[in-house]
Write a structure and sequence with these properties.
Low-confidence stretches of chain A: 271-279
Strand content of chain B: 25-35%
Number of strands of chain B: 20
Mean pLDDT of chain B: 83
Radius of gyration of chain B: 35 Å
Largest sheet of chain A: none
Largest sheet of chain B: 7 strands, mixed
Shape of chain A: flat
Helix content of chain A: over 70%
Number of helices of chain B: 10
Largest interface: A-B, 66 and 69 residues
Number of strands of chain A: 0
Distance between the termini of chain B: 69 Å
Low-confidence stretches of chain B: 331-345
Structural class of chain A: mainly alpha
Structural class of chain B: alpha+beta
Oligomer: heterodimer
Order of helices and strands of chain A: HHHHHHHH
Shape of chain B: elongated
Helix content of chain B: 25-40%
Order of helices and strands of chain B: HHHHHHEHEEHEEEEEEEEEEEEEEEHEEH
Number of helices of chain A: 8
Chain lengths: ~280, ~475
């Protein structure tokens, strides 16, 4: 890892940790100042994180989407970014900030424990479709993650009511709508991700679709979110049922990204780090 | 009742059953579940034959049961075809039934009723007392028009404002896209030809005769192979810090004057045929000289995989030989793959043989002689003057040749599907109705998708504005 990036990532982790702690403390103690501290430290962390990604990009000569560490770092950044991109009136940071920061911390922390080195981009990754595919994958997975985090907030508040820290969260109706919006956002971006991957696969492997385990699992996750949207739009599912489904569906995304490559070896999507060359 | 009428009744009932929401959901869940099974149960097409045979031998009863149920090749099993058919039949029935309703919803005159009595009974209708009710409705029209709404005003004092009136067509676009994707997939399945070839620099390939690495897979319909022939002029793998960076080749296609350059991710495309480069390696020339004066030579395409040993024979000299690079190539990750998607584009250049080639001269009883050959060098193959030399090294590349039709349907399907989703779920139809009624204005709102929450500030302004024109600013 380049020195500049290492310094920036270290500070990012510290700021994300402070943001997470402050956000949880704000909810627990009902202090607006702590929430504000959480929001600002997250925003500063996001800026430093962007700097770390840019530093890596500048040194490696390619976008940080080629190794598991790079994907973890960019993925964590996307989650925090998406939390801040929501309109102010959604008050998303209040509802899902702690969850989003926890997720970003875990993913970035997990990434830094692996191999953080980089090399030239493999020939198979030298395609404009990589950027389209990966960009939309990050948007989709970040969208589903935020939906899931907000759903957790909804369920928590729905169970306990307007007591203590839960009174600080947005009203249930707003949380429910936010979950749906992020599910829709994730569903559309996931569709683009799958389509872009399919088009890329035609140039790379000669076939649009190969029933590769990662492909299949992504399709399963997409179809499941499709069912969720159908349940909402045609059956009018709202509230707890909808939140439970949105919360649990994230498991499919986690398996698609982290699980399949670890369990199934016969996949073209190898999420492993190259061993060092011996000559 | 005539028989034909009975059939018609049965048919209508069947179509009604197909379009029930429960069936739509069940078919999606069934497909999702079956795809999930494809991940949990080892699939024959994705396993090496030896691995599949080993699994079959270790769990014979289980594997036989799974095979009988079609679950070891689930993506092409009858139950997946049935589920897919059910999904599309259901989809078609739903779309067919919805078309008139959706088209109606694109019209401005369609929507929340404008009759005051019906509107007053409608849940969520707000009654705002005003002095000049028709004037208030006109003010509402101005505000809504300025906010991007189209106004339908069948009579003074009653209006319907609609934003994104064409959005309901998104439903048809998204679900119709599945039809295009299915048509594309079927067309590809019927017309797809694929072949793999390993070809050295200077060698030629012809889809009619090869050379092929494995027997080509002909299409289910149409000509047995595409009209394609080319010569490999040059293969160029490029490494940096010991890692693969680029892989390309120059190919001269029959009937063309200038060569085309192919790279990983940049296949040569000739009509419906694509030529993809997927790997490369060194192909040294091994030449032998026997004591009796016989001589021969062969270009040997050396295997790339770890510990891979390449066998070849030089019958004129009575030699059977096994070779491998003296220095192991870069270690690859599990399954011979390395970094993400490294599987395609794994390649070695001549530098892989810089330390020479380990050579085993084989006889019936085993290894007769062993040695290391460097480019330009030679070694003795026996004690009576036999020689084996490696005078030259050139490169070979592995190509995948694919010919298929139907890709354009997939592209259009993808684009239409995404557009449909955006229209259906993001730019959904919003509708506001304002009707003058007995000293008040009745306001009603309707929206699909995420509801009108995004328009809350506009609606709040509208209510204030209708009640009092001073609120306009």
């Amino acid at each position: 890892m380049p020195r500049t990036e290492a310094i920036l990532v270290t500070f990012t982790l510290v700021l994300y940790a402070v943001s997470f702690s402050s956000s949880v403390a704000a909810l627990a103690m009902g202090r607006e100042r702590l929430l504000s501290l959480g929001r600002w430290t997250a925003l500063c962390g996001l800026g430093l994180h962007a700097g770390a990604l840019a530093a890596r990009w500048a040194v490696s000569g390619h976008a940080p989407v080629a190794t598991p560490y790079e994907n973890a770092s960019t993925g964590a950044w996307s989650i925090v970014l998406l939390t801040f991109l929501a309109p102010r009136r959604w008050r998303l940071f209040r509802g899902a900030g702690a969850g989003a920061m926890a997720l970003a911390l875990i993913i970035l922390g997990w990434g830094t424990t692996g191999d953080t080195s980089f090399g030239p981009m493999a020939p198979s990754l030298r395609s404009v479709w990589l950027y389209v595919h990966v960009f939309f994958a990050f948007l989709a997975y970040a969208g589903f993650s935020v939906a899931s985090g907000t759903a957790l907030g909804y369920l928590w508040k729905a169970k306990r009511g307007e007591v203590g820290l839960l009174a600080r969260l947005p009203v249930l109706e707003d949380l429910d709508l936010t979950v749906f919006r992020y599910v829709v956002f994730g569903f559309i971006t996931c569709a683009v991700m799958i389509a872009a991957g399919s088009i890329w696969a035609k140039d790379l492997w000669g076939a649009y679709w190969s029933w590769d385990p990662v492909e299949t699992w992504s399709l399963v996750a997409w179809l499941t979110y499709g069912v969720l949207i159908h349940l909402r739009v045609t059956y009018g599912w709202k509230g707890r049922r909808f939140a439970w489904f949105a919360l649990l569906a994230i498991v499919l995304v986690i398996v698609a990204y982290f699980g399949v490559g670890q369990v199934v070896t016969a996949t073209q999507h190898v999420f492993t780090v190259p061993e060092p060359p011996i000559f | 009742m005539r028989a034909i009428d009975l059939v018609a009744v049965e048919w209508r009932e069947f179509v009604a059953f197909l379009r029930t929401r429960a069936l739509v959901l069940v078919s999606i869940l069934l497909l999702t579940g079956l795809y999930g099974i494809g991940l949990a149960v080892p699939q024959r097409v994705r396993l090496a034959p030896s691995a599949y045979a080993a699994w079959r031998a270790s769990r014979p009863r289980l594997v036989r049961a799974l095979e009988a149920a079609g679950l070891t090749d689930v993506f092409r099993s009858p139950i997946v075809y049935f589920a897919t058919g059910l999904f599309f039949a259901s989809l078609l029935a739903v779309i067919w039934e919805r078309i008139p309703r959706i088209v109606r919803r694109t019209r401005l005159e369609h929507g929340i009723p404008l009759e005051p009595a019906a509107l007053a009974r409608r849940k969520g209708t707000r009654r705002i007392p005003v002095a000049e009710e028709e004037e208030a409705v006109r003010r509402a029209a101005g505000l809504l028009e300025a906010s991007g709404y189209r106004i339908y005003e069948p009579r003074p004092g009653a209006l319907r404002a609609v934003r994104f009136r064409w959005a309901p067509l998104g439903f048809l676009a998204f679900h119709g896209a599945f039809g295009l994707l299915l048509a594309g997939a079927i067309t590809i399945d019927l017309t797809r030809y694929s072949a793999w070839a390993t070809i050295g620099e200077g060698e030629a390939f012809d889809a009619a005769s090869g050379p092929f690495r494995n027997p080509p897979k002909p299409p289910k319909t149409g000509a047995a192979h595409p009209e394609l022939a080319f010569q490999v002029l040059d293969v160029r793998p490029e490494r940096e810090s010991g890692m693969q960076k680029r892989l390309g080749a120059d190919l001269l296609f029959a009937g063309e004057a200038t060569p085309r350059h192919v790279e990983v991710n940049q296949p040569a495309v000739l009509g419906s045929t694509s030529v993809l480069i997927t790997g490369a390696g060194p192909a040294p020339l091994f030449a032998c000289g026997a004591p009796g004066g016989a001589s021969s030579g062969v270009w040997v395409k050396m295997k790339l995989d770890r510990d891979g040993v390449t066998h070849f024979a030089l019958p004129e000299c009575g030699l059977r030989v096994a070779v491998r690079p003296a220095e192991q190539p870069q270690r690859l990750g599990k399954n011979g793959q390395g970094v993400m998607l490294q599987a395609t584009g794994a390649a070695l250049g001549p530098e892989a043989l810089a330390d020479g080639v380990e050579v085993l001269i084989l006889r019936a009883g085993g290894v007769e002689r062993r040695g290391v050959l460097v480019p330009g060098g030679e070694m003795a193959t026996d004690d009576v003057g036999g020689r084996l030399a490696m005078p030259e090294v050139r490169l070979y590349a592995t190509f995948e040749i694919v010919d298929e039709r139907g890709g354009a349907l997939l592209w259009v399907g993808f684009a239409l599907g995404v557009l449909g989703l955006v229209f259906r779920l993001v730019l959904f139809r919003r509708e506001v109705v304002a009707v003058a009624s007995g000293g008040a204005v009745l306001l009603a709102f309707a929206a699909e998708g995420a509801g009108l929450a995004g328009e809350s500030s506009l609606l709040a302004r509208l209510e204030l504005f209708v009640a009092s024109p001073e609120e306009e600013g």
